[in-house]
Amino acid sequence: MRQIPNLLGVFRVLTTPIMVYWILQGDGWSLLYAAVLLLAMAISDIIDGNLARRLGVVSPLGIFLDTISDKIFVAGALIPMVELAMLPSWYALVIIVREFAVSGLRSYAASQGVVIPARSWGKQKLTFTVMAIIWILVFYALPQIVGSPWWFVWLSTWWLIPAGLALVWTVGSGIEYFWNARALLARAVSL
Q: Which residues are CB-contacts of 127 (< 8 A; sequence separation ≥ 6)?
């Protein structure tokens, strides 16, 4: 029972290649399977931290798995979507570069004995990003499965809303991390 939070992190890492494979198939059912798997990964990401705190088993390994697993599954979804022209490359690049930049900042801070905790913007960013990716996968899957009924045509461009929110929160949360670390970075530059 005490290992469940860590196993959920491992689950996300190990199932990412399956999601990538399904996305690269590009057919309606495979894209739908990828969307459902991504939803399961996102739910497990929400559950594992809360469960670890409730069980009193928060550990450095768990924090590490939680930190890298969401970056792995998000990049694992974005890259094949770019390859299949479901998303523009600049969009994926903004999200992935922000992840590297914030991870680098947090690593540097840790080397200086400073812990930069996850912020609410960052958590919301992951929610919007996953929501946008799932919506886009379903947007490409449904016409292949059920055709294009009137309701689908009406909803077809609404995926732009979560995609836009994900982009705003990605940039905003990245700025927030660096703004809050400005004193730490200023000390590094003045050395």
A: 42
Contact 42, 74 (CB under 8 A): no
pTM of the model: 0.89
Name the helix (H) or strand (E) containing 64: helix 60-83
All domains of the chain in start order, with CATH: 4-190 (1.20.120.1760)
Q: Angle at CA 77, nearest 5°, toward 135 and 136? A: 20
Q: Are 167 and 91 in contact (CB under 8 A)?
A: yes
Q: How far apart are CA 94 and CA 87, in angstroms?
A: 12
How far apart, in whole angstroms, are the C-alpha atoms of residue 117 and residue 119? Answer: 6
pLDDT tens profile 85-139: 999 999 999 999 999 999 999 889 988 888 887 778 878 999 999 999 999 998 8
Centroid of chain to Cα 162: 13
| Residue scoring higher pLDDT (78 or 124) | 78
Separation CA 135–CA 22 (nearest Å): 15
